[in-house]
Amino acid sequence: MDKEYLIHGKPLRVIFLFSLPMIIGNLFQQFYNMVDSVVVGRFVSESALAAVGASYSLTNVFICIAIGGGVGASVITGRFFGARQYEKMKQSAYTAIIAFVALSVLLGIAGILFGREIMVLLKTPEDILDMATVYLNIYFIGFPFLFMYNVLSAMFNALGKSRTPLVLLVFSSILNVALDIFMVGTLNMGIAGAAWATLIAQGLSAVISFVLFLRMMKGFRCEKHRAFDLKLLKNISGIAAPSILQQSTVSIGMMLVQAAVNSFGTQALAGFTAAMRVDGICCAVMIAVGNAMSPYISQNIGAGLTDRVSSGLKSGIALVAVYAVLTCVATEVFAGRLISLFLGEDGTEKALVTGIACLRFSGWFYFLLGLKQVIDGVLRGAGDMKMFTIANLANLAIRVGAAVGLSPVFGIGFIWYAVPFGWLANFLISFGQYRTGKWKTIPAA
Fold this sequence. Notes:
Number of domains: 1
Strand content: under 5%
Number of strands: 0
Structural class: mainly alpha
Distance between the termini: 29 Å
Protein backbone atom coordinates (compact mmCIF):
# COMPACT_ATOMS: atom_id res chain seq x y z
CA MET A 1 0.00 0.00 0.00
CA ASP A 2 1.14 3.56 -0.80
CA LYS A 3 2.86 4.99 2.30
CA GLU A 4 0.88 8.21 1.74
CA TYR A 5 -2.49 6.48 1.29
CA LEU A 6 -4.12 8.60 4.03
CA ILE A 7 -3.91 11.65 1.75
CA HIS A 8 -4.84 9.89 -1.50
CA GLY A 9 -7.57 7.29 -0.88
CA LYS A 10 -11.30 7.63 -0.27
CA PRO A 11 -11.75 8.83 3.36
CA LEU A 12 -14.14 6.09 4.54
CA ARG A 13 -11.99 3.33 3.10
CA VAL A 14 -8.61 4.62 4.30
CA ILE A 15 -9.86 5.56 7.79
CA PHE A 16 -11.41 2.11 8.16
CA LEU A 17 -8.28 0.34 6.91
CA PHE A 18 -5.98 2.53 9.00
CA SER A 19 -8.09 2.19 12.15
CA LEU A 20 -8.66 -1.56 11.77
CA PRO A 21 -5.27 -2.62 13.20
CA MET A 22 -5.80 -0.12 16.05
CA ILE A 23 -9.27 -1.55 16.69
CA ILE A 24 -7.96 -5.11 16.76
CA GLY A 25 -5.01 -3.98 18.90
CA ASN A 26 -7.25 -2.17 21.38
CA LEU A 27 -9.56 -5.18 21.57
CA PHE A 28 -6.61 -7.46 22.27
CA GLN A 29 -5.33 -5.08 24.94
CA GLN A 30 -8.72 -4.94 26.62
CA PHE A 31 -9.09 -8.68 26.17
CA TYR A 32 -5.97 -9.44 28.15
CA ASN A 33 -7.04 -6.89 30.78
CA MET A 34 -10.29 -8.79 31.00
CA VAL A 35 -8.57 -12.19 31.18
CA ASP A 36 -6.25 -10.77 33.84
CA SER A 37 -9.29 -9.94 35.98
CA VAL A 38 -11.10 -13.20 35.20
CA VAL A 39 -8.04 -15.22 36.28
CA VAL A 40 -7.66 -13.19 39.48
CA GLY A 41 -11.37 -13.37 40.28
CA ARG A 42 -11.64 -17.12 39.71
CA PHE A 43 -8.23 -18.39 40.91
CA VAL A 44 -7.71 -16.02 43.83
CA SER A 45 -10.88 -14.38 45.17
CA GLU A 46 -13.58 -11.78 44.65
CA SER A 47 -11.60 -9.52 47.00
CA ALA A 48 -8.54 -9.87 44.76
CA LEU A 49 -10.68 -8.85 41.78
CA ALA A 50 -11.77 -5.77 43.73
CA ALA A 51 -8.11 -5.00 44.53
CA VAL A 52 -7.20 -5.10 40.83
CA GLY A 53 -10.13 -2.81 40.11
CA ALA A 54 -9.11 -0.36 42.81
CA SER A 55 -5.54 -0.34 41.44
CA TYR A 56 -6.64 0.01 37.83
CA SER A 57 -8.23 3.40 38.33
CA LEU A 58 -4.82 4.78 39.35
CA THR A 59 -2.63 2.87 36.88
CA ASN A 60 -4.93 3.80 34.02
CA VAL A 61 -4.25 7.47 34.63
CA PHE A 62 -0.58 6.82 33.94
CA ILE A 63 -1.38 4.58 30.98
CA CYS A 64 -3.38 7.42 29.47
CA ILE A 65 -0.49 9.82 30.02
CA ALA A 66 1.61 7.47 27.89
CA ILE A 67 -1.07 7.06 25.23
CA GLY A 68 -2.01 10.73 25.17
CA GLY A 69 1.61 11.81 25.00
CA GLY A 70 2.25 9.46 22.11
CA VAL A 71 -0.84 10.50 20.18
CA GLY A 72 -0.09 14.19 20.75
CA ALA A 73 3.53 13.83 19.71
CA SER A 74 2.52 11.87 16.63
CA VAL A 75 0.55 14.86 15.34
CA ILE A 76 3.77 16.86 14.86
CA THR A 77 5.59 13.84 13.42
CA GLY A 78 2.70 13.05 11.06
CA ARG A 79 2.54 16.67 9.87
CA PHE A 80 6.24 16.61 8.94
CA PHE A 81 5.76 13.24 7.26
CA GLY A 82 2.85 14.57 5.19
CA ALA A 83 4.99 17.54 4.16
CA ARG A 84 7.95 15.19 3.34
CA GLN A 85 10.21 17.02 5.81
CA TYR A 86 11.94 13.82 6.90
CA GLU A 87 14.74 15.46 8.89
CA LYS A 88 12.27 17.21 11.18
CA MET A 89 10.11 14.09 11.24
CA LYS A 90 12.98 12.02 12.67
CA GLN A 91 13.97 14.73 15.11
CA SER A 92 10.38 15.02 16.35
CA ALA A 93 10.07 11.27 16.85
CA TYR A 94 13.34 10.87 18.76
CA THR A 95 12.67 13.94 20.91
CA ALA A 96 9.27 12.53 21.94
CA ILE A 97 10.67 9.09 22.76
CA ILE A 98 13.49 10.45 24.93
CA ALA A 99 11.23 12.91 26.75
CA PHE A 100 8.45 10.48 27.58
CA VAL A 101 10.71 7.64 28.66
CA ALA A 102 12.44 10.08 31.04
CA LEU A 103 9.03 11.16 32.32
CA SER A 104 8.05 7.52 32.87
CA VAL A 105 11.01 6.96 35.21
CA LEU A 106 9.98 9.94 37.34
CA LEU A 107 6.34 8.85 37.43
CA GLY A 108 7.30 5.28 38.31
CA ILE A 109 9.38 6.44 41.27
CA ALA A 110 6.57 8.73 42.44
CA GLY A 111 4.09 5.87 42.13
CA ILE A 112 6.17 3.52 44.27
CA LEU A 113 6.66 6.21 46.93
CA PHE A 114 3.09 7.47 47.13
CA GLY A 115 0.88 4.74 45.63
CA ARG A 116 -0.38 3.36 48.94
CA GLU A 117 -1.17 6.84 50.29
CA ILE A 118 -3.18 7.62 47.15
CA MET A 119 -5.15 4.39 47.54
CA VAL A 120 -5.95 5.35 51.13
CA LEU A 121 -7.17 8.77 49.95
CA LEU A 122 -9.38 7.00 47.42
CA LYS A 123 -11.04 5.17 50.34
CA THR A 124 -9.90 1.74 49.22
CA PRO A 125 -11.51 -0.85 51.54
CA GLU A 126 -9.09 -1.91 54.27
CA ASP A 127 -9.43 -5.61 53.50
CA ILE A 128 -7.96 -5.20 49.99
CA LEU A 129 -5.49 -2.33 50.58
CA ASP A 130 -2.39 -4.53 50.93
CA MET A 131 -3.20 -6.55 47.81
CA ALA A 132 -3.80 -3.37 45.80
CA THR A 133 -0.48 -1.92 46.94
CA VAL A 134 1.46 -5.03 45.93
CA TYR A 135 -0.11 -4.96 42.48
CA LEU A 136 0.63 -1.24 42.06
CA ASN A 137 4.29 -1.41 43.08
CA ILE A 138 5.09 -4.10 40.51
CA TYR A 139 3.19 -2.19 37.84
CA PHE A 140 5.13 1.01 38.53
CA ILE A 141 8.45 -0.79 38.00
CA GLY A 142 7.45 -1.45 34.39
CA PHE A 143 6.57 2.15 33.53
CA PRO A 144 9.55 2.79 31.18
CA PHE A 145 8.46 -0.18 29.04
CA LEU A 146 4.83 0.95 29.12
CA PHE A 147 5.68 4.48 27.96
CA MET A 148 8.19 3.37 25.35
CA TYR A 149 5.73 0.95 23.77
CA ASN A 150 2.84 3.45 23.64
CA VAL A 151 4.92 6.32 22.25
CA LEU A 152 6.46 4.05 19.61
CA SER A 153 3.02 2.72 18.67
CA ALA A 154 1.81 6.28 18.12
CA MET A 155 4.85 7.00 15.95
CA PHE A 156 4.21 3.93 13.80
CA ASN A 157 0.60 5.08 13.40
CA ALA A 158 1.68 8.63 12.49
CA LEU A 159 3.71 7.19 9.62
CA GLY A 160 0.84 5.01 8.39
CA LYS A 161 2.31 1.77 9.80
CA SER A 162 -0.57 0.79 12.11
CA ARG A 163 -0.08 -2.93 11.44
CA THR A 164 3.24 -3.04 13.29
CA PRO A 165 1.80 -2.04 16.71
CA LEU A 166 -1.01 -4.52 16.12
CA VAL A 167 1.33 -7.48 15.62
CA LEU A 168 3.31 -6.52 18.72
CA LEU A 169 0.16 -6.03 20.79
CA VAL A 170 -1.23 -9.41 19.75
CA PHE A 171 2.09 -10.98 20.75
CA SER A 172 2.07 -9.11 24.09
CA SER A 173 -1.56 -10.02 24.79
CA ILE A 174 -1.13 -13.73 24.13
CA LEU A 175 2.06 -13.81 26.22
CA ASN A 176 0.35 -11.91 29.03
CA VAL A 177 -2.59 -14.31 29.11
CA ALA A 178 -0.27 -17.34 29.14
CA LEU A 179 1.85 -15.86 31.93
CA ASP A 180 -1.30 -14.93 33.88
CA ILE A 181 -2.57 -18.49 33.83
CA PHE A 182 0.88 -19.90 34.67
CA MET A 183 1.83 -17.47 37.45
CA VAL A 184 -1.58 -17.14 39.08
CA GLY A 185 -3.23 -20.47 38.30
CA THR A 186 -0.20 -22.82 38.40
CA LEU A 187 2.39 -21.10 40.62
CA ASN A 188 -0.28 -19.61 42.93
CA MET A 189 1.50 -16.23 43.00
CA GLY A 190 -1.81 -14.45 43.55
CA ILE A 191 -2.30 -10.84 42.53
CA ALA A 192 1.49 -10.33 42.28
CA GLY A 193 1.64 -12.96 39.54
CA ALA A 194 -0.85 -10.98 37.43
CA ALA A 195 1.25 -7.83 37.80
CA TRP A 196 4.52 -9.59 36.88
CA ALA A 197 2.87 -11.18 33.84
CA THR A 198 1.91 -7.73 32.55
CA LEU A 199 5.37 -6.28 33.19
CA ILE A 200 7.20 -9.08 31.36
CA ALA A 201 4.87 -9.00 28.35
CA GLN A 202 5.02 -5.21 28.00
CA GLY A 203 8.80 -5.18 28.44
CA LEU A 204 9.44 -7.59 25.58
CA SER A 205 7.03 -5.72 23.28
CA ALA A 206 8.70 -2.38 24.07
CA VAL A 207 12.18 -3.66 23.25
CA ILE A 208 11.05 -5.26 19.98
CA SER A 209 9.15 -2.07 19.04
CA PHE A 210 12.25 0.04 19.54
CA VAL A 211 14.39 -2.19 17.33
CA LEU A 212 11.80 -2.16 14.54
CA PHE A 213 11.37 1.61 14.79
CA LEU A 214 15.11 2.25 14.43
CA ARG A 215 15.18 0.00 11.39
CA MET A 216 12.25 1.87 9.81
CA MET A 217 13.86 5.27 10.42
CA LYS A 218 16.92 4.20 8.42
CA GLY A 219 14.67 4.01 5.36
CA PHE A 220 14.14 7.79 5.37
CA ARG A 221 17.28 9.39 3.99
CA CYS A 222 18.01 12.94 5.14
CA GLU A 223 20.68 15.22 6.53
CA LYS A 224 22.15 14.55 9.95
CA HIS A 225 20.02 15.83 12.81
CA ARG A 226 20.10 16.15 16.57
CA ALA A 227 18.35 13.38 18.48
CA PHE A 228 16.82 15.84 20.92
CA ASP A 229 15.58 19.37 20.25
CA LEU A 230 14.12 21.66 22.94
CA LYS A 231 12.16 23.77 20.48
CA LEU A 232 10.48 20.71 19.03
CA LEU A 233 9.83 19.41 22.55
CA LYS A 234 8.01 22.66 23.32
CA ASN A 235 5.87 22.29 20.19
CA ILE A 236 5.23 18.62 20.93
CA SER A 237 4.26 19.47 24.51
CA GLY A 238 1.78 22.07 23.27
CA ILE A 239 -0.15 19.30 21.52
CA ALA A 240 0.71 16.41 23.85
CA ALA A 241 -0.34 18.10 27.10
CA PRO A 242 -3.98 18.66 26.05
CA SER A 243 -3.97 15.25 24.39
CA ILE A 244 -2.80 13.70 27.66
CA LEU A 245 -5.60 15.53 29.42
CA GLN A 246 -8.12 14.25 26.88
CA GLN A 247 -6.89 10.68 27.09
CA SER A 248 -6.74 10.92 30.87
CA THR A 249 -10.12 12.57 31.34
CA VAL A 250 -11.97 9.31 31.65
CA SER A 251 -9.26 7.80 33.84
CA ILE A 252 -8.88 10.81 36.12
CA GLY A 253 -12.64 10.88 36.44
CA MET A 254 -12.73 7.16 37.18
CA MET A 255 -10.00 7.56 39.80
CA LEU A 256 -12.01 10.22 41.58
CA VAL A 257 -15.18 8.23 41.02
CA GLN A 258 -13.35 5.23 42.51
CA ALA A 259 -13.55 6.86 45.92
CA ALA A 260 -17.33 6.96 45.57
CA VAL A 261 -17.47 3.32 44.42
CA ASN A 262 -15.17 2.18 47.22
CA SER A 263 -17.55 3.62 49.80
CA PHE A 264 -20.16 1.03 48.76
CA GLY A 265 -17.90 -1.85 49.88
CA THR A 266 -15.79 -4.64 48.39
CA GLN A 267 -18.69 -6.56 46.80
CA ALA A 268 -20.03 -3.56 44.88
CA LEU A 269 -16.46 -2.70 43.86
CA ALA A 270 -15.95 -6.22 42.48
CA GLY A 271 -19.12 -5.93 40.36
CA PHE A 272 -18.16 -2.47 39.14
CA THR A 273 -14.66 -3.73 38.26
CA ALA A 274 -16.15 -6.54 36.17
CA ALA A 275 -18.42 -4.08 34.35
CA MET A 276 -15.51 -1.73 33.66
CA ARG A 277 -13.47 -4.54 32.12
CA VAL A 278 -16.28 -5.29 29.67
CA ASP A 279 -16.83 -1.56 29.20
CA GLY A 280 -13.18 -1.27 28.15
CA ILE A 281 -13.80 -3.68 25.30
CA CYS A 282 -16.96 -1.81 24.28
CA CYS A 283 -15.09 1.50 24.20
CA ALA A 284 -12.01 0.13 22.40
CA VAL A 285 -13.34 0.60 18.86
CA MET A 286 -14.57 4.14 19.54
CA ILE A 287 -11.21 5.14 20.99
CA ALA A 288 -9.30 3.51 18.11
CA VAL A 289 -11.32 5.35 15.47
CA GLY A 290 -10.79 8.63 17.34
CA ASN A 291 -7.04 8.03 17.55
CA ALA A 292 -6.93 7.07 13.86
CA MET A 293 -8.56 10.39 12.94
CA SER A 294 -5.56 12.37 14.25
CA PRO A 295 -2.91 11.04 11.79
CA TYR A 296 -5.46 11.22 8.97
CA ILE A 297 -6.20 14.87 9.75
CA SER A 298 -2.58 15.88 10.43
CA GLN A 299 -1.25 14.30 7.22
CA ASN A 300 -3.96 15.87 5.05
CA ILE A 301 -3.50 19.31 6.59
CA GLY A 302 0.27 18.94 6.19
CA ALA A 303 -0.28 18.14 2.51
CA GLY A 304 -2.61 21.17 2.11
CA LEU A 305 -5.73 19.00 1.58
CA THR A 306 -8.07 20.61 4.13
CA ASP A 307 -11.10 19.76 1.99
CA ARG A 308 -10.67 16.10 3.01
CA VAL A 309 -11.22 16.89 6.70
CA SER A 310 -15.02 17.21 6.50
CA SER A 311 -15.43 13.96 4.56
CA GLY A 312 -13.10 12.27 7.04
CA LEU A 313 -15.26 13.43 9.95
CA LYS A 314 -18.41 12.03 8.32
CA SER A 315 -16.64 8.73 7.65
CA GLY A 316 -15.50 8.45 11.25
CA ILE A 317 -19.03 9.05 12.53
CA ALA A 318 -20.41 6.39 10.18
CA LEU A 319 -17.91 3.83 11.50
CA VAL A 320 -18.70 4.44 15.19
CA ALA A 321 -22.46 4.43 14.52
CA VAL A 322 -22.35 0.89 13.15
CA TYR A 323 -20.29 -0.35 16.08
CA ALA A 324 -22.53 1.41 18.62
CA VAL A 325 -25.57 -0.56 17.42
CA LEU A 326 -23.71 -3.88 17.68
CA THR A 327 -22.42 -3.01 21.15
CA CYS A 328 -25.85 -2.04 22.45
CA VAL A 329 -27.33 -5.36 21.35
CA ALA A 330 -24.44 -7.36 22.84
CA THR A 331 -24.55 -5.67 26.26
CA GLU A 332 -28.32 -6.09 26.56
CA VAL A 333 -28.29 -9.77 25.65
CA PHE A 334 -25.08 -10.98 27.32
CA ALA A 335 -24.57 -8.67 30.32
CA GLY A 336 -25.36 -11.36 32.90
CA ARG A 337 -23.08 -13.96 31.37
CA LEU A 338 -20.23 -11.50 30.94
CA ILE A 339 -20.28 -10.29 34.55
CA SER A 340 -20.56 -13.90 35.83
CA LEU A 341 -17.29 -14.76 34.04
CA PHE A 342 -15.35 -12.62 36.52
CA LEU A 343 -17.05 -13.71 39.72
CA GLY A 344 -17.12 -17.50 39.49
CA GLU A 345 -19.29 -19.77 41.63
CA ASP A 346 -18.45 -17.91 44.83
CA GLY A 347 -19.46 -14.49 43.51
CA THR A 348 -21.93 -12.54 45.61
CA GLU A 349 -25.37 -11.39 44.48
CA LYS A 350 -24.49 -7.74 45.16
CA ALA A 351 -21.46 -7.89 42.89
CA LEU A 352 -23.46 -9.54 40.09
CA VAL A 353 -26.38 -7.09 40.25
CA THR A 354 -24.08 -4.05 40.36
CA GLY A 355 -22.08 -5.19 37.34
CA ILE A 356 -25.13 -6.03 35.22
CA ALA A 357 -26.89 -2.74 36.00
CA CYS A 358 -23.82 -0.70 35.06
CA LEU A 359 -23.13 -2.56 31.82
CA ARG A 360 -26.71 -2.60 30.52
CA PHE A 361 -27.19 1.11 31.10
CA SER A 362 -23.91 2.06 29.43
CA GLY A 363 -24.68 -0.02 26.35
CA TRP A 364 -27.36 2.41 25.17
CA PHE A 365 -25.01 5.39 25.01
CA TYR A 366 -21.76 4.27 23.37
CA PHE A 367 -22.63 6.21 20.21
CA LEU A 368 -22.17 9.42 22.21
CA LEU A 369 -18.68 8.25 23.14
CA GLY A 370 -17.99 7.56 19.46
CA LEU A 371 -19.07 11.07 18.46
CA LYS A 372 -16.84 12.54 21.17
CA GLN A 373 -13.83 10.48 20.15
CA VAL A 374 -14.13 11.28 16.43
CA ILE A 375 -14.50 15.05 16.81
CA ASP A 376 -11.73 15.11 19.42
CA GLY A 377 -9.51 13.23 16.97
CA VAL A 378 -10.15 15.88 14.32
CA LEU A 379 -9.27 18.79 16.61
CA ARG A 380 -6.22 16.97 17.98
CA GLY A 381 -4.98 16.16 14.48
CA ALA A 382 -5.36 19.80 13.51
CA GLY A 383 -3.53 20.96 16.63
CA ASP A 384 -6.59 22.96 17.79
CA MET A 385 -6.31 22.25 21.51
CA LYS A 386 -7.87 25.11 23.51
CA MET A 387 -11.57 24.33 23.18
CA PHE A 388 -10.67 20.64 22.94
CA THR A 389 -9.31 20.89 26.48
CA ILE A 390 -12.32 22.81 27.77
CA ALA A 391 -14.65 20.17 26.30
CA ASN A 392 -12.87 17.34 28.07
CA LEU A 393 -12.81 19.24 31.36
CA ALA A 394 -16.58 19.70 31.07
CA ASN A 395 -16.92 15.95 30.55
CA LEU A 396 -14.81 15.28 33.63
CA ALA A 397 -16.69 17.80 35.80
CA ILE A 398 -20.09 16.28 34.97
CA ARG A 399 -18.98 12.73 35.72
CA VAL A 400 -17.12 13.47 38.92
CA GLY A 401 -19.82 15.83 40.18
CA ALA A 402 -22.52 13.19 39.83
CA ALA A 403 -20.43 10.43 41.40
CA VAL A 404 -19.25 12.46 44.36
CA GLY A 405 -22.33 14.63 44.89
CA LEU A 406 -25.27 12.41 43.91
CA SER A 407 -24.29 8.74 44.40
CA PRO A 408 -23.95 8.98 48.21
CA VAL A 409 -27.52 10.30 48.34
CA PHE A 410 -29.32 8.45 45.54
CA GLY A 411 -27.25 5.26 45.18
CA ILE A 412 -24.37 3.77 43.22
CA GLY A 413 -26.25 3.98 39.90
CA PHE A 414 -25.60 7.70 39.67
CA ILE A 415 -21.92 6.88 39.15
CA TRP A 416 -22.70 5.65 35.65
CA TYR A 417 -25.91 7.61 34.97
CA ALA A 418 -23.91 10.82 34.43
CA VAL A 419 -21.46 9.31 31.92
CA PRO A 420 -23.49 9.90 28.72
CA PHE A 421 -24.20 13.51 29.75
CA GLY A 422 -20.45 14.09 30.01
CA TRP A 423 -19.86 12.57 26.56
CA LEU A 424 -22.63 14.68 25.02
CA ALA A 425 -21.34 17.94 26.53
CA ASN A 426 -17.83 17.09 25.31
CA PHE A 427 -19.05 16.47 21.75
CA LEU A 428 -21.17 19.62 21.53
CA ILE A 429 -18.32 21.89 22.68
CA SER A 430 -15.72 20.26 20.39
CA PHE A 431 -18.08 20.22 17.40
CA GLY A 432 -18.88 23.89 17.93
CA GLN A 433 -15.16 24.65 17.77
CA TYR A 434 -14.78 22.56 14.63
CA ARG A 435 -17.57 24.53 12.95
CA THR A 436 -15.65 27.79 13.43
CA GLY A 437 -12.95 26.56 11.02
CA LYS A 438 -10.14 28.01 13.11
CA TRP A 439 -8.32 24.67 12.96
CA LYS A 440 -7.40 25.40 9.32
CA THR A 441 -4.89 28.11 10.24
CA ILE A 442 -2.88 26.46 13.07
CA PRO A 443 0.83 25.95 12.17
CA ALA A 444 2.58 22.60 12.72
CA ALA A 445 5.58 23.94 14.62
